[in-house]
Amino acid sequence: MPPEIHPTAVVHPSARIGDGCQIGPHAVIDAGVVLGPRCEVGPGVHLTGDTRLGSGNRIHAGAVLGGAPQDFKYADAQPTRLRIGDANVFREHVTVHRSNRLDEDTVLGHGNFLMAGSHVGHNCVLGDHNVLANGALLGGHVVVADRAFLSGNCLVHQFCRIGRLALMQGGSGISLDLPPFTLARDNNTLCGLNRVGLRRAGISPEDRRVLQRLYHLLFRSPLPRSERLRQARDGFPQAVCRELIDFVATSKRGVCADPGHRGVPGAAEESGAD
Question: pTM of the full predicted structure?
Fold first, then answer.
């Protein structure tokens, strides 16, 4: 089935439009763009740069995908890239920037839902089935695993990592890493596990209970960080626990802290993060 292109849309002859695509009025698709089959491009959308999308993506009015990175170091002549998988939804006025260097791409996986006004900066890497609610902003080089949920107007500093099934409450901000399965509020603050997300993801009741014990050890114990990690490795062999332990152990920026135990020093102090 050939694509349907509105007569007011501007599509460069070099752009590749897959079968079954629908291109709305006043959309602009530049050279170098590749659209997989059955994508829907709404009115006023701009697709630019070396940008490739898989199948079944839906791009709503006013979104801009593949724009140049907001980075003073970027050279305008560099043909950097944006790579997007299948079945993602980009609501009104979402912006996703291509990378700032030739040896890295900005990458989005499959099934992500980016709500109105959210932003993904250059060189970000998102996994699958993540949700960015209205106004959520990712700085450059942020890495998000799978099935994370960033509520409205959340802010994520450049180079941060967000683990699988983590959740940020509305208006919160992080400049440190957010571990998998955890819940963030305010600034760089943990407030427990993402219980609802864990249950919905099919994490077993037993794994949820053991994760709760591990959370208390890692984030609420007054023990030194090295001792907390040693006890965690020795006492929690489950796969979900290993995922959380490895994330914390490999953090370069430091991880968000739970103030529930005043004896626990901030993760940034322990790691030397700025």
Answer: 0.92
